[in-house]
Amino acid sequence: MHKSVLSLVCCLFFFLSCQEEIETMPNGSLNIVLTDGAAVTRTLPDALSDELRQQFTIELLRDRDGTIVPEYKGALKDFGDQRVFKVGSYQLKAYLGENPSLALDAPYYYGEVQDITIEKGKATTVSVGCKVANALATFEIVNQEVFDKRLKDYYVEVSAGGESVTWKPGDVTHPYFKAGGRVTMALIGTSVETGQEGSYALNPIETVKAGVKYNYKLSMKASNVSLEVTTETQQEPITINETVPDSWLPKAKVFSEDFDENHVLTYTETADALSRAGVSYTALRPVQDVEFALNFADKHLEHLNKTYLLSELSEEDRRALAAVNIVLPDLAAGSTEGVIDFAGVTPGMLTHDGGQDTDNIIAVRVKANDRWSDAGMYTIRTVKPVFKVDVRKGNIWSKEFTIDECEVIAGNESKIKSDLKYQYSVDGINWIDCELTTKFDNYQKDKEFQVRALYRGDISTDIVYFSLENSMQLPNSGLEEWNHTSLIKDKSIIYYPYGAGETAFWNTNNEFTTRYRNNTMGKPYNCFPAVSYTKDAHGGVYAAELRNSAAGRGNTWFIGHTELDMNKVPGELFIGDVTIETGGTDASPKGDHYTIIKGKEFSSRPTAFSFWYKYAPLNSDTWKVYVALYDENRDLIIENTCTSSIEQNDFVQYTVPLNYDEKTYYNPCKYICVIFSSTISLGSNLPYQTKTVSLWVGDTQKGFKDTFAGSTLIIDDISLHYDK
């Protein structure tokens, strides 16, 4: 058997086209010609078409101080007629194909040149001889009628480099293998007589030679199932004017630059159409046909699922494919490449079953050289859009909550919001459609909620879990809890608005007005409580009684009396703590003052604060109440101050509104502060008089004369209201 060897010689010309010397980068140009190994000719034979020639890959490597670095790599067709390179020493490689260990129809061409010198201001011409660098095997059944009587389903299995391929009678494809390796072959078939499968080893190739066709002739004697195998391994060159056999040409290739290395292209449902989603193909000879198979998991596209042959495509199929914007190539005469573009179908692709990934699989193969290419398998994976909702803590109240508007992270925002609903649930099973703000008529105490957004009734955001604020009331809101301490042998008393042994929530400024507890001789103008309990209550037994006070250290009493401005303070009942600073001496106590540390921990945000009160003003005096909420950083959330000068002899209810702006975000509450003051006047402006004051000590009233006291404010039955 005549053994054909292809010898391809590529001449690479680096041409310096310059009229004046180029100082740093000499020019080089590339031109390709073919040769039979002797004389250079510019005539391209029909068999070795320009398409094949242009498919060669060129690698130019530069020697940079002993280190070989890449300078250029690309298809010869992209190299152009002129290239500029730095002066230096280079290596050149030219190749076509991938040189696998074993594959069907995979010829490999290779050539290289070492020690190429590019000099300044000169054109360098380089010739590189390229030839077949791997080998192939062909098989011929000499007496097939005898084979068919003895064997059925028989084939040749070829193995090399851990890979195996098969050849069956009638196949036009051939196994190619890398030079230098070992190849084993076996005839495998099932006995017609016994039904048992047998394997018959053929002569192996111990060391594969490059550029060799190994032709196996298989014959079988009629008397028995023995084999005589004749192997011819002739190596003969093919001149450039000879026809290159199709078996030496690469098969058409199916590829895509749009899909990733795993042949997957991901599309997010609702997103704009992908700019490209093409499956391309190329061949060295005109394409004869294209076969593509669709296996769409997308339910509204699954009616297209079947295998199509482009040459036999019906008008009905063309219309169906065009309706979803699948663009098909045209089998024009002489065309060697084409694209099936699926970009147009992507904007309508959907996920299903709650947004599960949906794989739409495409298989494409191409026929050229009377042979089909390997099938290219590609997947357009539709994934659900990514969007989320949140309910910030500050938007969770005791009777309502507000969902933040849906945020679209991946996908088309307008499409998603056009078919979006918000829902809440208390059990995760039953979901109720709602607006962004959901209000309840009654308190939902300790109620846990779940919130989500749902797109087209099928795709949900992650669920947000939260609980509403509790509609809490203040400790000792009825002001029934008190304890007291007798001072100076019961000549003065200090009152505390909490039970004995309990932690203070409510507090008073009594520690300031009773701070002078020595050397007073029990005089109330020196030591007297500004706040006490009283049985003049609106509800229950006790209420709080606040009075202006001018009592404190440094005051004197001779024929008349002398009181210091710093001792003139309102009676104050408040939520918080108090610090007292004293300066000077008892006789000269300059600098004495107290400071209210506002607030105690409280985690609800009321919309109003109410209480019942009486007021006996002195000299048109005015009482005050201050209410404030603070966040965890003690930054103010909301506050309000109210005053009144109206005398009230009977209990009336007063409400301090806390008006929240609907457009403002309010942080969750961490602290609450309330301050009641019997007067808004301080120092010399504070109205008071010398009088006898009766205080309740348990169930007994005790009178204290010569007190410096003024306006009296009685507070009882404090309550918080929640309308949000």
Give an overview in words.
This protein is mainly beta and 724 residues long. It has five domains: 4-132; 135-238, no CATH class; 253-383, Immunoglobulin-like (Sandwich), CATH 2.60.40; 386-467, Immunoglobulin-like, CATH 2.60.40; 483-721, Jelly Rolls (Sandwich). 5% of the residues lie in helices and 46% in strands. The chain has six helices and 55 strands. The strands form 14 sheets. Strands 6-5-8-10-11-1-20 form a seven-stranded mixed sheet. Strands 41, 46, 47, 48, 50, 51 and 53 form a seven-stranded antiparallel sheet that branches. The protein is elongated, with a radius of gyration of 49 Å.
Helix content: under 10%
Largest sheet: 7 strands, mixed
The amount of beta strand, in percent, is: over 45%
Shape designation: elongated
The first-level CATH class of the largest domain is given as Mainly Beta
Distance between the termini: 97 Å
Any idea what the radius of gyration is?
49 Å
Q: How many extended strands?
A: 55
Enumerate how many helices there are, as a single number: 6
Low-confidence stretches: 1-26, 28-48, 235-244
In round numbers, the mean pLDDT is: 86
Under the CATH scheme, the architecture of the largest domain is Sandwich
Structural class: mainly beta
Number of domains: 5
Strand adjacency order, main sheet? 6-5-8-10-11-1-20
CATH topology (level 3) name of the largest domain: Jelly Rolls
